[in-house]
Amino acid sequence: MSMKKASVSKRRREPLTDSQLLMTITIGIFAVMYAAAMIFMGGGFLRTQQFFDLLNDNAALIIISCSLTIVMIGGGINISVGGVIGLTVMACALFLNNSGIQNGPLGILLTLLLALGIGLAFGVLQGFLISYLEIQPFIVTLAGMFLSRGLTTMLSVNPVKVTHEGFLALVKNRLAIPWLGYTAKNGNLIPAKLEIGAVVALLIVVLVYFMLRNAKLGRHIYALGGNQQSALMLGINVKRTRFISYVISGLLSGLAGFVFLMHKPAGNASVAMRSEMDAIAASIIGGTLLTGGVGNVIGTFFGTMILATIQKIIALSPLNESWWQEMANGAMLGLFILLQSVVLSSRKKKARTTS
Amino acid sequence: MNKRIIKKGGVGQLLIPLVALAILLIFNLIRDPGFYSIGVAVNNSGNKVLTGNIISIIDSASELAIIAMGMTLVTAACGGQDISVGAVGTIAGSIFVKTLKAFPDINFGTLILAILACCLVTILFKSFNGALVAVFKIQPMIATLILFSCGRSIAYWIVGSATPQIDSPIINSMGMTIPGIPIPTPIFGVVLVGLILTLIFRLTTLRLYTESVGVNQGAARLNGINPVGIKMLSFVILGICVAVAGIIGTCRMGQVSHKTLLIDIEMDAILAVAIGGNNLGGGRFKISGSILGAYIIQMLTTTLLAMRVDPVNIKAYKAIVIIIIVMAGSPVVKQKLTALWHRIRSGGLKPASAKGVN
Fold it and tell me: For residues B65, B23, A80 and B131, what is the CA-based torsion angle, rounded to 10 degrees?
């Protein structure tokens, strides 16, 4: 606790806070890893498109990781995000197919509202139970996970493919950036392409970054996670702040569901299974502490990219089996956790000896 | 204030889970009295066994109850939960099968050897988790997230194939029933683990030490208790529980499948601990509450199945019941309800007194 308070008060004097230091390490490791992949794997990794593909494939994961970072900075946890994605994807797919509003922007807009509505409902419900009834967040969001997964299978046990033409046309849209592209063998310039979902995810990262850094709400969330008693004494409405953090988390999960549907236009009971754990891992790798008060969404973004890069490297290597993937993820996570612990405790010691 | 809490500690904590269980029991009695019928049937291997919903509930909640006991200890000492129990249980199952397969035939000697090997391996894995938590001061959930994400892969890597089978009368009698005894064997596993833990807590000061580390680690250290040791010990005990649960699960199926063995049990175990009225932030604990929680969860599942709810949809109903149970246990809700009760009583008195004046 004292360490976190110190990190806030020493912001002016010290060059880096704890969260900035952890974030720097994360970015460094990502750079090293990507460079190693470029050197040893060559091929696709030398093209910008490979990096963009990481963004395209993991847009939903980036968004829920941001939502988890917000909640974790506030000292809470939300393990229902994966379930909410699954439910949103299924509900939106069914709505698009059965609403009867074909081919217009109206249908897509309503679907987006439905996705956000589902996320908002989960956020409000969980936030209310956690902050106003003071029930443990783990249990509430675990129940939220069960509820969303159960509702998903209630909607449909079988996979639902989106047939709505307007939506499928929207999905095909790409943001093409010619100067980052490469020249193919036949001399054509192939521009690097970014999906809409990836653009949305990047926007969310930037928005959340400024929200946490500059907005009153963001600073309140940091204060709440750092020390709830102090936050209360500073006159912060602790309950409302916590409630809002869960509402934002829910909304972002709903949005992530819509983004997921834009990447893979089909609903399935096993969509985003266990992705909440990936999101937690990404947040931790990015330097967010589960104890609250410390964290940075840029770090989270690079945490997600590290997980995505591991996945890509293993998919392209001869070890392409799911159990290798899981082992690599586990090893990476273990490495980061130990590194963080060592770095933080050595800093603590240094601070103690100098003061 | 403190004295009041200590006085209240006893039965108060068990009130909510007991009421929940009672409501489930009464609900089932009204819905279908035949739910409680217990019969005797002859199973495939020619043994007489007890059958019926109650027996199947108690039998199939065995793994959950055993893991919930260990989870209670870890929760109390470390103020966090272990989410790798399912994965490590699968590793235990793999080691069990691997050891038994190393010998030409399965007899009691090899069985005991396999069980010991299992316990040793799970203790090693759990010590790794315990060291991360106790020495490196990492949150338990994060420290166990590592094995959560790669434990099942390690299990697959150990046995080298998807579902290795073991078939032997001894394994069957461990997973189902021992010839001549009509009660399913896993129930004895729960009783055994429960008895051993009860004895440990009755005969030693471990309970007091664990609670004091959970309540205030610094104060416990100043009083001469070693928090690192206590936390490690709680993880070691959880490791043994996980090994037993993994062996029971493997014997029940006659095979170890790294994808389905003890799947999602970590979440259910944490739920059992919470439903049992234990604080997930550490401190005072009641193992009996967690065992009760485990049976409530299984009872709920079986009730829903008996009501012909589609198995894939059970989770949604379970979520609603869980929320109701934890809401009933929430101190804020209790406070508000008592305030409401007082207001109703005083509100009820006022008109009466007014009438009296008239």
Answer: -30
